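Why does residue order matter? Because the sequence determines the fold. Keep that principle in mind as you read this record.
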Amino acid sequence: MVEANRAYALGDEEQLRWILRAWERGRDAGPGRDPEAMRLRLVRRVSEIEEQLDMLAADLATLQASPVWRLKAMVDEAAARGRDLVRETIARLQRDIMVATNRLDATIALSSWLQPIVLAERPRARQVFARPGFGGQPAQQLDVGLPRWSSKCPRSSSGSAFL
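Structure:
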């Protein structure tokens, strides 16, 4: 009964069907003590065990196809060669985090260096854009301040400014 409750809680329909079949076969066993009745019970029991082995083999195949099993296999293989794959992965991730942090710090520093240049030159550069009118209204002109890049601003090899 405990096995049936566990299978029900896990939603394992195949296990529940197997338990039901085993229970139905057990009812048919009968109390006979003669050799033929004993032989039939043994044949049923062998059949049940073979079904159980098949079900366990299918479960094992499902586990072996999972990503967790592949990770376990990689860790075991590395351990057999004297390496600690988990520790190596942690060290590599820490290096990657450090590189990303340094890159972010450099970007923030460059941004804070460029911001005063862009803000200082913004009022000098103006460009007028025409916005079409909607619903029969006349077109309007928008005066938008655009940044101009100074010679102090870093540029790429193509001549465009970095941001």
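The helical segments are 2-10, 13-28, 35-64, 67-80, 85-121.
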